Amino acid sequence: MHLCRSEPCLCRYEFASRAGRTIDAANAVGTLKCPDLLGSPSNGNTRVAAALRMAALSLRRSQTALGAYYRRIAQRVGGDVAVFATARKLATLIYRLLRWGQPYVDEGAQAYEARYHQQRLRNLTAKAKDLGYQLAPINA
Predict the structure, then answer these.
(1) Is the alpha carbon torsion for 72, 84, 101, 3 positive or negative?
(2) Could you tell me which of 29, 4, 31 has the C-alpha nearest to residue 95?
């Protein structure tokens, strides 16, 4: 543990890491904001990790924002990676609930997909503009 805002606590990176995700110091450089995690990796709590993975796996067919997140990651990089990514997201949500009392309000799968679609459209528009092109919608 380290001092976070002048009081001893687990930061969200440590919480997710100790919940079962092993952090490799060589791969963590530049991706994590917590400098105290750049030491040796921890083994974590395997029971908590197993519970988080089981919960993440149950989100496969769920019509929630977390379920849509799982399906999007699984489509892109595979189901095994999606289970770990969703478990880490769940660990972060649990940490926020325990640390600050911030409740999780599900936006639903359709709202998540719409937000993701708008984000992709913004990114594609910016890339096209950088290349000197302009995107135009197809009128159906």
Answers:
(1) negative
(2) 4
Rounded Cα distance, 21 and 50, in Å: 11
Contact between 53 and 45 (Cβ < 8 Å): no
Q: Establish if 135 belongs to a structural domain.
A: no
Domain that holds residue 7: 2-130
Q: Is residue 78 part of a domain?
A: yes
How much helix, strand and coil, in percent to the nearest 5, is found in the chain? 60, 5, 35
Angle (CA) 38-49-16 rounded to 5° is 35
Instruction: Please count the structural domains in the chain.
Output: 1
Q: Packing angle between helix 46-58 and helix 79-100, nearest 10 degrees?
A: 110
The tens digit of pLDDT for each residue in 85-105 reads 999 999 999 999 998 898 888
The pTM assigned to this predicted structure is: 0.63
How much is the average pLDDT of 61-66? 92
User: Quick check: is 136 in a domain?
Assistant: no
Residue 42 has pLDDT above 70, yes or no: no
Which of the four pLDDT bands, split at 50, 70 and 90, describes residue 107?
Answer: confident
